[in-house]
NOE3 protein
Amino acid sequence: MSPPLLKLGAVLSTMAMISNWMSQTLPSLVGLNTTRITTSDTLTQISPKEGWQVYSSAQDPDGRCICTVVAPEQNLCSRDAKSRQLRQLLEKVQNMSQSIEVLNLRTQRDFQYVLKMETQMKGLKAKFRQIEDDRKTLMTKHFQELKEKMDELLPLIPVLEQYKTDAKLITQFKEEIRNLSTVLTGIQEEIGAYDYEELHQRVVNLETRLRDCMKKLTCGKLMKITGPITVKISGTRFGAWMTDPLASEKNNRVWYMDSYTNNKIVREYKSMADFVSGAESRTYNLPFKWAGTNHVVYNGSLYFNKYQSNIIIKYSFDTGRVLAQRSLEYAGFHNVYPYTWGGFSDIDLMADEIGLWAVYATNQNAGNIVISQLNQDTLEVLKSWSTGYPKRSAGESFMICGTLYVTNSHLTGAKVYYSYSTKTSTYEYTDIPFHNQYFHISMLDYNARDRALYAWNNGHQVLFNVTLFHIIKTEDDT
């Protein structure tokens, strides 16, 4: 039992004892019954009429007992038995009154303590009830969370089954590798050190021959386009990004030109990783605004079409100066002969394994595509080819090994459907599909070093891989 309850029990027990004592003793003390009191060995009988009488009793607001006592007539001598009895009675009543007062104070104090404890217990009861309600709510919430977790895990069961199957295959592979290693160890012991060196030399010779063979794979015919690989999402719907196909393997700078007009800012990134993270290394403010999105970086310089003109600009990143500029004779500009999507894409500059090219249209060729090979230093036209394909009906186009490939890249089901070979001056219709994932390609250029197509697809910078068909000529071929 807690201390407050012990105190309450003690108070109630004490009050019961006093009540019992008062019921038995007080009547005799105040003369409500006939009592024999021994005084000086003499018995004196006192009747109720002669002694003290309780006239009335009540309880005050604080719980204390109040008695009204009728005193007897004062006609007795002070030395008689009734006087002594009165004095004794007064003393006992005073003692009892003091005891009751002390008891009352203790009772009031304990009662206040009990009230305080009752308030605290009610508060605790409310808290326990709240905790119980919260516990039910939390259990319901946790149960729902566990159920959702189980629903998420259920689809993993077939995956786990597959993992178990894969684990068996891996065990088989490990056993086969162990057996193969044993066989190879035996073969190595049989061959000996001298023969091993001879085999190693044969491998080195084979690697050299493969490298020589790869050098002959500089050109080929486009067979397949796969992808795209989304590198980054940035900029407006239209723009261009590129790397330098003639840069060294350690030089992986990326250039970024947002929008097709009203802009002169070129952003440079030291690597593809910096481009993805947005860690810009340098900014170039060109002397002229560009037109379209068909720019190209070639051998450390930027080639672009000057806004509202058919002038080609060569700008050096190293010196920050214009190295050359030349008008492309008869070339249409400012949306006279753009690609299907518009955007001032009249003049398309591009590069491949052979060199620098310009693709455009003229009135003299009835708006059909003209291909011109350019001198990278002076921008002179070295040679031109007139095709019969209308420029305004074409999507983006690109050059690979001297062949122009024309797409309908503005459509969802994009494909390469026309090609023109500058080597044979002939064309053919093709059917090479590729995925226009973001529905609007405004830039598509081939990079000979990466063997990939760089594209700007509706604010997404993406890469396509290309597959080329190569014909390898041997020394015996004439």
Observations:
- The first helix runs from residue 3 to 30.
- Residues 244 and 297 are 5 Å apart (CA to CA).
- The helical segments are 3-30, 81-153, 156-215, 272-277.
